[in-house]
Every structure is written in structure tokens, then in C-alpha cells.
Predict the structure of Galactose-1-phosphate uridylyltransferase.
Amino acid sequence: MSSDRIVQELRWDPVLGEWVMVSNVRELRPWHPEGFCPFCPGTPETGHGWDVLILNNKYPILSEEPPKLRPHKFFKNAPSYGKNYIVVETPKHDLDDLSDLTVEEIRKVITYVIDKYIEELSDKRSVYFLYFRNKGKEVGVSLTHPHSQIYVLPFIPTKVRRELTNALNHFKRYGRCLFCDLIDAEVSDKERIILKSSHWIAFIPYYAHWPFEVHIYPLKHINTLNQVNEVMAEDLAYVLKKVLCGVKNIFENPMPYTMVLHQAPMRGHYSYYHLHIEIYGMYRTSGRLKYAAGVESGAGNFTYDDTPEEAASILRDTIERKCVIQ
Ligand SMILES: [Zn+2]
Ligand SMILES: [Zn+2]
Ligand SMILES: [Zn+2]
């Protein structure tokens, strides 16, 4: 784009009823010499002597001081107030994935993210704490040093908003948590369960969208990250290591995936909501990516080749063969 004007704002899509985050700040991304990693220890920003590091994203899509809005006579926009953080998960550049860290190292990453959530709660302008991880060049990851991201958003993300609506409807109708009920259904069916620990359960849901889509739920009904206690965090580290190791090793090439944490918004009353993690493993077969193409992008509905039951059996088998944790 040739315009000199910095645009960093939310634009409302009145047709679908959702926000789009618009920013041209990322285009100022400087050129780095070949082999330079901004997440490795020893740069001015990273320093030395850490296990996990949370950095400000230098080229954010949101800002703590967003530029002045240019109002539109028809369309609605809003300041893109928010924060973008990078969670550098380890000082070790050459590890491939979160699952290559030890359980204790993963526990530390989780604890740092929980602490950041608690810290961000005091900022009254923040509405939603979105933690996610992209893995693989196929999903646009240019820096391979293991890292995940946090977006502190000024709005509730669309997907979570839909989940909240359906969870509230279920609660009003049956007086129970939608997610607790679906966990019960998965437990009773058994065939899509990947693993169950003392505090968490992982399964490929009955209605999976992506080829290897794993959902991880705490067995206890909790809404937000600050309710994940130390014992639960340690147990989650173990579950994540196993599940992500399995997802990575299903095919010859490591599986590209996106992992996202869904929790209740930071303010308001959402006791009917149940925190969970969703992982979308994107290979259909070795090296063949499932694209969100015509039907998915154009219609918003997924097609699923094969069945979630078969995918669960393949993933369980991979974990058993390749993911033994001492
Ligand atoms: Zn590095
Ligand atoms: Zn629940
Ligand atoms: Zn969800």
C-alpha cells in the first residue's frame, strides 16, 4: 500500500456482525540478516538467564495507544486498543515444537501465561485474553524458535461469542453446562477419547471440523485461566506434551496446527462457560493440507473426509508408538 497514513483500527462488518482488525503497521517490518532470531537469548530485548519470556510484539495489530480514528459516514469503526505478546517458550532455538520441551518446561510456559492473564485483568479496557499457537510454515509461521502468542482484545472473538450464546441457551433449557454434558457424551461413547488424566480429558469431538482436531477440557467446570491451579497446570503440561507429540508424528512430515485457548471474557458473568483448548491439525494425508476453501470460507461449513472416530484411533495409535513420557 502506498498511503503514508497509519491505519490501526477495528472495522465492523455489518453483514456478518463481526469485527475485522485492520492495521498497516506490520508492513514496516524491518529486514533481518539471514539466520538472525529475535527470540534467542542475548539480543537487547531478550537478554540472558530466562526459561520463558513474554515479549511485546514489535509489529502489533493492536495498540495501547491506537491512532486517531477517521470516522465514516456509513460504516462503524473503533479504536483497536489492545496488546500483542509473544511467549518465547524456551531459550533453545532448535527445538521444533512445544511437545519437545519437558513436562516441567511446558508447565512453566502455562504458569507464565496464567500469570500474564492475572496481570491483564487489572486493565479495565481489556475484554478478552486470547492465547494461541501456530505451528508450521504452512500456517504462516516464519520464525521457527518455539513460541506462542497472546492477543488482549477489546472485544469478544466471534467464535467465542457463538459458543457463549449456545452455552447460555443450553443452560437456560437444561440447567446444565453444555460442555460438561458433551464431555459426558464423549466419555460414554469412548471411541473418540485420546487420553484422560486426573484433571483433563482430550478427545476428537463428534463434530470435528479439521482433520485432526483435538479438544482438551478440564474435568472440573472452570471458566477462566486463573482457576487453573498448580496441580491442574502440571497435569495439563503432561496432556499437552502427549497430545501435541501425537499430532506432530501422525505423518512423516510434522503436522502443521493451530492451538487456541477458549475461556470466558475477562469481565461479566459467564459461569455457564467451560474453559477448553482446541487444536486443529491440518494435514489430511502426509504433506496434504486441508484448506479452508470454497465450502469452508464461502459457506462457513466444513466438510470432513473420513470420520472423527477413525482420526481418533490413528492419533491414539501414534501416541502409543511414538510418545512415551518417562
Ligand atoms: Zn532463536
Ligand atoms: Zn462445564
Ligand atoms: Zn471452543
Notes: The helical segments are 103-120, 158-174, 178-189, 230-249, 294-299, 308-322.
